[in-house]
Amino acid sequence: YLRGKEYGYRSFLESDFRIAIRMYEKAVELDPTFALAHAKLSEVHAGMYWFYYDRSEERLAMAKEAVDRAFQLNPNLPEVYIALGWYHYHGYLDYDRALEQFAIARKSQPNNSNILGGIGFVQRRQGKFEQALANIKRACELDPRSGKLAEEVGETYMLLRNYPEAERYFNRAISLSPDVPLAYNYKAWIYVLWEGSTEKARAVLEEALQNIGFVEDRFIILRSVLLNVFDGDYQEALDRLSSCKLEAFDTQFFFIPKAQLYAQINGLMGNQQLEQA
To answer: What is the mean pLDDT of the chain?
Structure first.
């Protein structure tokens, strides 16, 4: 259970989520009445769906089955309502029901960073950025060793165009979790949004390569390609795409087929035949 919790909260990486699922499944196999482990298992299944690692109805059903089992075992457990909050948010974008469940859990655990983070993330989706920032920052204060929460504070500041504060929190996230790509991705991008500096952005992605090694991360790869395009290094952009195993950059934020990028870059190069092909 503790290993599952460690990997479930460490990052948003699919590899971490899959390890967490295996650990939680082992926990409930050893003790089928372990309501807390069932609730946490539900959260990670919902996360798999949310981050587009598995957008199947079967994955959502697994999240629902796990939280229903937790509820049957202990309907008074706050973590059951936290899991229900994530299920409604991540599974169906049902903000009101998610907030209702988080509010129930918060009555008994007012300083739970997972609850405050969940409330803040929903508020951010609702466009309530200042309220979201307050809750996510509070969650980060309560869990100061969480690189994931530091990255989320930085992302919220980025959306508010407060780039100096965003930079500060992305640096903190990187120092806490130097092997997780997401904070590098956002830190690189704020230099484009803030200063129009592809040079600074490239330096951040290079730092990611030095700290992590080969990074086959869809956000990092796409940023690298776009930076090449912005600098007019079209052949470099095509080469980077060719080395990528992904057929599309598929996330909750965008869906960009690799073929579309090939066409657009060839169009910028004046290769009309290849653009239309």
So the answer is: 95
